[in-house]
Write a structure and sequence with these properties.
The chain is about 90% helix and about 0% strand. The chain has 3 helices and no strands. The N and C termini lie far apart (about 110 Å). The chain has a domain at about 35-105. The protein is an all-alpha fold.
Length: about 130
């Protein structure tokens, strides 16, 4: 029993520091991996969005799958240069999501522009009904 007390009093704090350092190191690596994953996901989305906008702007004469292929190849090249790994399926999903956002924004702009015309038409109908 005396041997155990001597061991704990002499080496206990060193062992405790070692365990705490190992736990802190593990938590640091875990936090870094989580942060890197979040940043990589955000970067992938931004690159996909940028490539879709660029392809829409540059390749106006292309349609459908030709534009998709251009966006996929451009995004893959940019992400590889940044050292971010991405699967073909993941990249395709990101591009399709960016296209959906682009189309939604375009449709909202188009419908917003036509709403005042509809309001004018309704006002004209109401005036005609009053007379």
């Amino acid at each position: 029993m005396e041997l155990l007390k001597n061991f704990v009093s002499e080496y206990g704090s060193t062992i405790l520091y070692t365990i705490l350092t190992a736990i802190a190191g593990y938590l640091g690596v875990w936090a870094k991996n989580l942060y890197t994953k979040h940043i990589n996901d955000k970067t992938k989305q931004d690159v996909a969005r940028t490539c879709v906008q660029a392809v829409e702007q540059i390749y106006k004469d292309l349609h459908g799958y030709e534009k998709l292929d251009k966006a996929l190849s451009s995004a893959a090249e940019i992400l590889n240069e940044k050292g971010i790994n991405v699967t073909d399926l993941e990249l395709r999903m990101l591009i399709e999501a960016a296209v959906a956002e682009f189309n939604d924004a375009f449709n909202k702009t188009t419908s917003t522009a036509s709403e005042p015309e509809a309001a004018d038409t309704e006002a004209e109908i109401a005036e005609a009904a009053e007379t």
